[in-house]
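Annotators were shown the component list below and the corresponding predicted structure, then asked to write short factual statements about the assembly.
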Amino acid sequence: MNVQEALTLLKNKGYKHTGKREDIISFFSSENRYRTAKDLLNYMEPNYQGISFDTIYRNLHLFHEVGILETTELNGEKHFRMKCDHQHHHHFICKDCGITKEIHKCPMDEIEEELKSFAIDSHKFEIYGLCPACQ
Amino acid sequence: MNVQEALTLLKNKGYKHTGKREDIISFFSSENRYRTAKDLLNYMEPNYQGISFDTIYRNLHLFHEVGILETTELNGEKHFRMKCDHQHHHHFICKDCGITKEIHKCPMDEIEEELKSFAIDSHKFEIYGLCPACQ
DNA sequence: TTACAAATCGTAATGATTACGATAAAATAA
DNA sequence: TTATTTTATCGTAATCATTACGATTTGTAA
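Structure shown to annotators:
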């Protein structure tokens, strides 16, 4: 998802356009990386000195709720990245820098059979390690 | 892993046998379920009134470190269960009760090819939903 | 049984996240 | 443009899981 699509989505859902929101979206759209609330705060602080935690977390959750961001937990902290809106896939995630690489093999197809009596509502398949740059 | 194996493992590694440790191990060995630190505390409290957080968390981490427990994160909380020591597999995890069901299809085999330049050190494949009893 | 290391207690500190009343800013209508 | 309303943000305190630590107790091995 790009910046413009995200802004339009927000507007369509009745949320207001603010400079902070635009900058938050730019921050995430610039890279295929999982980042923390603190990473975002560090990025915002120079331009918006005194920005509140409330603003950071409220927007992260809002963006996740409306589908602008996706989230995962890495070592006890929530991490966020721009939502991938093309075909279903999974990610390799670098433990150091959070960069992601798409994995286009999804194991679920062959598994639903095994779980007939369970009500599946989501699954997580992630691979962790170091990307070439961080090795 | 059963209670006896776990106690022997602890002893072999030079850790002391205490009533609390035995009870913690019993707690986990009784079910195929992910439980939180708080679940464990609730279980221990009646028998050991005033048991310290330190004891709960220290032992959870120790047991994870020596391979008695395995761990995952569900809604921002660490969950623990008895380590499965037989063949590599994954789990379906019930979001309500934490019960697990083994999944014997591992997607990794077919994926390493795609990630030649990455240093893979672990992967997580979990399916979430409701077990038959919780539906 | 003694002595020492390890385990536990009681409680405070930490760190991420959430919450909230007061204020400011964006959108909408007049 | 101005007024009005609604949402966003600030500043800061509260919460919740987890970690840390000095003092005390308990296993264990000599």
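Statements collected:
1. Chain A is about 30% helix and 25% strand.
2. Residues 14-16, 18, 20-21, 50-55, 58-59, 76 of chain A lie near DNA strand D (CB under 10 Å from a C1').
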